[in-house]
Fold 2OG-Fe(II) oxygenase superfamily domain-containing protein.
Amino acid sequence: MAEDGASQLTAPIVDISGYLADDAQAVPRIASSIASAAHSPGFFQITGHGISSSLVSRLLENVAAFFAFPYEVRYSVRSSKLTAFRGFEAMGDQRIDKELVDCKEGFMIGRETSPEDARYLQGPNQWPLGPQGQDFKHVMMEFHNKMLGLSKVMFSLVALSLGLKEDYFDAFVDTISMMRAHRYPPMTPETAKNSRGIGEHTDFGALTLLLQDQVGGLEVFHRPSKTWHAVEPVEGAFVVNIGDMLERWTNSHYTSTLHRDFWIK
């Protein structure tokens, strides 16, 4: 259920399988669809991306298992232990909207980097001990590496959508990537007065790739009407969100859209 009578928004769905298959006829159509969606509303969903449903299922199962660990196990790998802020984020650790509390838990990872070679927000990851912790590590890193590959694909498609050479952003994508898993407990109408799953914000990076489960909760702000709209999950799809950096790179031709997570049970 969305707040303020927010209606459903069908984010444009772009099948990128033709690009991955080197289909010369499909690529201009894909690039055009991305150009339209990235300009407004700044959100779209991609299918045909090559990430297997079995990997997604294993990821969701292991993420659910992690958040079911005893709190002391999760807290033992809290993100504040590392300067790269990788690991467990407890309820209330983040507050995106200064007026409202973020009602979520999270776990953040990135590329494994030695402390000696690390740049800002880079470094080693940390994981829970024991067999379940190892299972969690393996599937999270497998998914992270797949998403790095998909991110490079998306930057190539964004370049084409702007009328640029396909490799235009290649120098930009060896970057400080972050992957987060979040758990949003359902809220009641009473608790929703003072909290959100995550408060309204834009993403500071260039591109965000988001996997929703079937519960949903993502809402985006429609600037012309100044209304919030729920983005219904599409099975097997990833939501692509234009971030502040890409809006800046394109001189606001592509839009970094205000969004939040909000779900009342």
In short: The longest strand covers residues 43-47.
